[in-house]
Amino acid sequence: MFIAMNRFKVEKDAGKDFEQVWLSREVHLHKEPGFISFHLLRGPEREDHILYASHTLWRSVEDFENWTKSESFRKAHAGAGGSKKLYLGHPEFEGFEALQEVLADGSNSILVAAE
Hints:
two-stranded antiparallel ribbon, 115 residues, 37% strand
């Protein structure tokens, strides 16, 4: 499993606009092989910004990388440049390979063998 996250520092007075851009755009992720889920997260408010994160769960890093080369990716990001005035700096990407998963039912899975 692979988690792809982008963190956005959004100017405090632009939070509602930022949310509207995300909540009103057409979603293409569900059409992609290996896609599991997506979350848009609103985090803490700081002195000069509100922290947001996009959190996408993929079956594998390969599925994520294939999506970044797809037509769906291009469509999803076509208008991204128009909302840059909302950000302080550039979004910060972080990718994580899941090593372990513990579920609410108590099941525990090791997802990647130790090296």
